[in-house]
């Protein structure tokens, strides 16, 4: 029996493009903004939230990290050495806490978004992603 593996080859081509972009973005974020890609995602999702704040559980669900991993990231970003986030106690439920984007966090995010856009533009200009996706869907 001869099995056609084209679908897997196309999927891996798309995955390789995404991994290349993630690696390049991680390198730029670390060098220029002292951020990991996950920390960038934290800043990004907080910037889109009402009041630029979210409960940790909400952020955990959006980003897809374990509770301990997210707590560690947020704790580091709330620390005085970083200052990109600040903890806020929930006024209607004192047990609940929010993390909120600070002005410094917004500045880091703005610069990071520019870098992300440049990396995407550069990386995607050399790859025909639409063709890869079309090829993938044609063999499925």
From TrEMBL:
SUPFAM superfamilies: Winged helix' DNA-binding domain. It comes from the Bacteria. GO terms for molecular function: DNA binding; DNA-binding transcription factor activity. InterPro entries: HTH_MarR-typ, MarR/SlyA-like, WH-like_DNA-bd_sf, WH_DNA-bd_sf. SMART domains: HTH_MARR (SM00347). Keywords: DNA-binding. GO terms for biological process: response to stress. Residues 28-132 form the HTH marR-type domain. PANTHER family: TRANSCRIPTIONAL REGULATOR, MARR FAMILY, TRANSCRIPTIONAL REGULATORY PROTEIN-RELATED. This is MarR family transcriptional regulator. It comes from Salicibibacter halophilus. The lineage of its organism: Bacteria, Bacillati, Bacillota, Bacilli, Bacillales.
């Amino acid at each position: 029996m001869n099995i056609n593996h084209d679908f897997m080859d196309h999927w891996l081509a798309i995955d390789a493009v995404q991994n290349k972009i993630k690696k390049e973005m991680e390198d730029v974020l670390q060098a220029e903004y002292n951020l990991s890609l996950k920390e960038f995602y934290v800043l990004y999702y907080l910037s889109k939230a009402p009041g630029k704040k979210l409960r940790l559980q909400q952020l955990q669900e959006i980003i897809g990290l374990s509770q301990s991993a997210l707590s560690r990231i947020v704790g580091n970003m709330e620390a005085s050495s970083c200052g990109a986030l600040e903890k806020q106690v929930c006024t209607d439920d004192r047990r609940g806490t929010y993390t909120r984007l600070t002005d410094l966090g917004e500045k880091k995010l703005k610069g990071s978004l520019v870098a992300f856009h440049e990396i995407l533009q550069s990386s995607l200009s050399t790859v025909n992603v639409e063709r890869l996706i079309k090829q993938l869907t044609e063999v499925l």
